[in-house]
């Protein structure tokens, strides 16, 4: 019966087999290393592109938020400028939020228009009251002052109504 040599013994006995085996192993290692490097580089590239995409998305969100804050700030500045313009014209600054526009030119036009409309409405209201279109209000009458009420009044109330109090004490009606 023929004796079979194991692989290790075969390599030890024949140097050509040993060299061929070493070349095959070296070639397999080189191929495996190249595949591993390629896979590792591909994974690094994929992770890098994902990270860059995430950074770009975050940067775009931050830019958008910053642009919105800047627009809001500029709108507030225009609103303050409108309020100052209204105050210079003798009008209340509380109208500024409704008058402020999208640009300084629009703000200026709206202030001019509002001033004109407000002055017209005010002039008409004053003229109407002067002509008597609306009846004048009845004067508010307080309780008549008498000696009983005088006894219940505080010192501050007596001082406020001193003319009536002195007339009551002198015995004459004011």
Task: Give an account of the 3D structure.
This protein has 174 residues and is mainly alpha-helical. The protein is built from seven helices and no strands. Helix 1 crosses helix 2 and helix 2 runs parallel beside helix 4. The chain starts with 6 loop residues before the first helix and ends with a helix.
What's the helix and strand layout?
Elements lengths: L6 H7 L1 H74 L7 H4 L4 H28 L15 H6 L2 H6 L1 H9 L4
Helix pairs in contact: 1-2, 2-4
Largest sheet: none
Low-confidence residue ranges: none
Report the principal-axis shape: rod-shaped
Number of helices: 7
What percentage of residues falls in helices of 4 or more residues? over 70%
The class by helix and strand makeup works out as mainly alpha
Query: What is the arithmetic mean of pLDDT?
Result: 86
Ends apart, CA distance between termini: 154 Å
The radius of gyration computed from the alpha-carbon positions, rounded to a whole number of angstroms, is: 49 Å
Strand content: under 5%
Give helix and strand order, one letter per element, not per position: HHHHHHH
Total strands: 0
Give a short synopsis of this structure.
The chain is mainly alpha-helical. It contains 7 helices and no strands.
Keywords for this structure?
174 residues; mainly alpha; 77% helix; 0% strand; rod-shaped
């Amino acid at each position: 019966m023929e004796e079979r040599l194991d692989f290790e013994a075969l390599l030890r006995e024949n140097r050509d087999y040993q060299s061929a085996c070493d070349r095959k192993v070296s070639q397999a290692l080189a191929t495996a290393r190249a595949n591993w490097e390629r896979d590792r580089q591909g994974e690094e590239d994929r992770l890098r592109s994902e990270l860059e995409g995430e950074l770009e998305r975050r940067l775009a969100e931050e830019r958008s938020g910053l642009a919105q804050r800047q627009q809001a700030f500029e709108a507030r500045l225009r609103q303050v400028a409108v309020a100052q313009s209204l105050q210079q014209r003798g009008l209340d600054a509380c109208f500024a939020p409704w008058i402020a526009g999208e640009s300084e030119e629009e703000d200026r036009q709206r202030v001019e228009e509002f001033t004109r409309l407000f002055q017209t409405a005010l002039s008409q209201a004053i003229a109407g009251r002067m002509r008597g279109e609306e009846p004048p209000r009845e004067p508010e009458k307080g309780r008549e002052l008498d000696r009983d009420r005088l006894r219940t009044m505080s010192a501050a109330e007596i001082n406020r109504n001193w003319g009536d109090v002195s007339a009551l004490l002198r015995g004459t009606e004011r």
